[in-house]
Amino acid sequence: MPINPLIIEKIEKLNVPDKIKNLLKRMLETEEQLEIFGTKKDYFINYDNILDKFANDKEIIQFSENYE
Amino acid sequence: MSSDISKKLTVDWPKNMSYDISDQRTADYVSERVGVVTKRGSIFYKKRLLDVFLFAMAKGKQKGLRTPLTKKSNSMPTDALKEEEIWLMSSIALSEKNSDLDILTKPEEIIKICEEYANTGVKDLIAIDFSTSISDPLEPYEKLMEDNLEKLTR
Amino acid sequence: MSRTKNVLRIAHVTLKNFRAYAGEIEFDLSLDPSKTITIIHGEMGLGKTTILDAIYWCLYGKERSKKGIDLMTEEGIINTNILENLGINSKDETFVEILLHDEEGIRFKIKRGIQFSKQSESTDRISNKNLGGTVPGGINFSPYVEFHYLHPSGTESDWEVFTKEEKVQEEIEKIFPEALSSYFLFDAELLNDFFLAEADEHVKNGIEKISGLPILDDARDHLKNTSRQIQKLIANKEVNSKPIADNMSQIEQAISDYKTKLDETEKRLDQIKSQKKGIQDYLRQHDDQEINSIQKRLDDVINTLKELDKNKKENDETIKQFLLNYTYKLLSRNSILETEKKFQEWENQGRIPLAVTKIALQNILNGHPATCICGTIIKDGSSERKKIDDLMKRVVDSTLIQHITVGRSILSNVISATDTQKLSSALGELKSKRGQFRMAYSEKKAIKDSLQQKYDNHNITEVQEKAKMLRTLEQEEITLYGNRKTYQEKIEFGEKDLKGLKRQLDAATGKSNKYQSENNKSKIAKVLSDVLEQCRNELVDQLRNVTSEKTTRYFKKLVSKKEDFARVGLDKKEDFSSDFARVEIKPNYQTIALDSNEKTKSLSTGQSCCLALSYIAAIREIANRNYFMMVDSPLHNISQEERVEIAQNLPSFLPGTQITLLVQDQEYTGHAKKKITGQDIPSVRDTLMKNNSVWREYLLEAKKEEGNAVSNTTIRKIEMGKTQ
Hints:
- The structure holds three protein chains of three kinds.
- By secondary structure, chain B is mainly alpha-helical.
- Chain B contains six helices and two strands; from the N terminus they run αβααβααα.
- Chain B is 53% helix and 3% strand.
- A two-stranded antiparallel ribbon of chain B has the order 1-2.
- Chain C is an alpha/beta fold.
């Protein structure tokens, strides 16, 4: 099932950097793809790949450290 | 006036009347302590030994059999007799075949006759008592009365 | 290319040899956005529900689950007649084909079927779950499925076709997720479930599934797990941290187990709560009413028995005294009579003087005139006078004679008293009374015994059993509360431990820059997971509220209040808001309608139906799918007035949505009269025709073909404007 617009709306309204919002949306899209292709068990590889791209992004790291 | 007469009537009478207690069963039956007059549910419960006697006597007379006593109990005082009862006993004696008018002047004779009839009758009463059911103790006596009513109306 | 659409309508349906339909039937449904309603009606049992089942089967390859029906004894998917009459080496097929259009003109065609051929004659009957029933032996079955897709810009030759089962299912799932199926194809009778105890779960699942929360939940969980897995990988590389990582894994597993147990405990506690309430209500009712009544009657009859017993005993005592007094006298009667005879003889012999005293004679002579007892006047000098004078000389007043006289009198009384007739009669009466008392006692005793048993049974079987059940539940509740506390504590401690271990792990691995990047990834993933969790919690409330709002909006459209649907009377249309202000879906997913004072309104069947339909419409809107809606028996169980109300509001209820109604003849064309005014209530058909909202009507008919023992259902288009 596609992502419900309400969820997207909610994410847009969060008080977080845009990068985080996009990352979240990306994660959700990944989840949607996994569902469509029936490969939910392969989530780790997919998520790991995405996270690899942002592992050294200063803004995201800063946000993560502050969030905790 | 009649009570005076009764007293006078029985003034010559022997003091006591008796059952024959040579037979243990009879002795138990007529015992004041443990006999039929102490049995709840019995028709004679809390009645006098005299009541039992009169009943036994009438039964014996109906049978027409006298049984002499061998061991007297002397357990029933004659002064406890009512006038009607005296005359009933007297009529038992008078109605004997060989009885004459003068038997009325021989009270010990009257008593002897009645005791012997009672001695016969008491065995019947014991038998009735034995066969009586606890649930309907009056049943044999009812039957006795009904049978006799029937006999008499025929 | 995403195939998911916002608007989908069924253009055409073809059924062949499916269930009750022998041969082929087909029908069109409305593609007109302004006239969206198609009606298929027919008598009960002709196969309306089968149409719904066919579409479901076509989409998902399985039968709709229905409650309380043994699928194995129902007609299977393949029409039984066709199967039974198949000749050897003959073949045929069953299929369902649906053609769908969306707004842009993209077309889908889905066809699912079973080809079958008879190889040999057989009397066996084989049960086949996939065919939904038992089928004769000796027949081969080959199922197949096709998914055709045509883009609007394509021509007829450009249809994309898939025939592999998995691929087809994949494509169908994209367009019609099975989770959503009950919002497009539904049996309105199942709407009743909506308002039963299972409704809350149903609504919860509906809201969460349809709103796509599962995706969010999965993303959240996967991110969390990713974070942990990365940590583990780092730890495994670092020798020192491996034990910590292992420890953490164990604790995570334990926490997860406890969370599951906690969940189950909470569910059970909820169950117990509701069970307890049921029992408590029951006990309150039964304690007060029935037992008290039985108790009172029992007391009355016991008192009557006591009275009868007393009477019985008194009568018995009377009989006893009677027998005691009279039996021996009766036995002595003959002796007494004998004695009296003798006395008379002696009297005659002169041995006893006449039964007369001197005083008595004197009294006779003293009379003026002297009168004998028999009444004869005794004149002086008469012979009677002479006799008396002689007697006077002879009578000797001796005491004995007096005694005899008295005695004879006493005995005479005894004879009187023992009169056989008198005694028989007296005894008879006493015995009769005894019999009456005994019978009355016996009757009353039987009544008492029966009441006593009722009382005991009532106590034991019902009330006491329920009380016992209540105590058991309460004990279980206490245990579960204890367990719950334990699980919560364990989870709390576990998470504390985890935090501690995490710090240790970070310390062990974070020191070297070797793993900086991995650490960052792990951190980011965790944070994203937490953000999603927060998101989710807010969303759930939001979704509930959104669903409540939308349901309210739909409900207001569909339900128009004339006082109350259940009552008959006023024609004046009142403002809706005076009775229903809003619909609320509570945090526990219970769905209720409230008035303007925030008080819960109880709904009539028709209103419940509307509420359920409104909820469904709301869900569809949230799911963003304005697909076709096919409803079976939507008007079942509701009054004529309510049906007409719904019919009137239906077109504006879901504008633009293709609605197909499968209705029973009676519900559709039946008229009624208003109870009080006698005014005619129009049929649903007339109402819909008046609104001009029906695109087409079809009638299902049973046709019996020659030579066929069983009738077959066919479908016939009705010309609009004409009555059938």
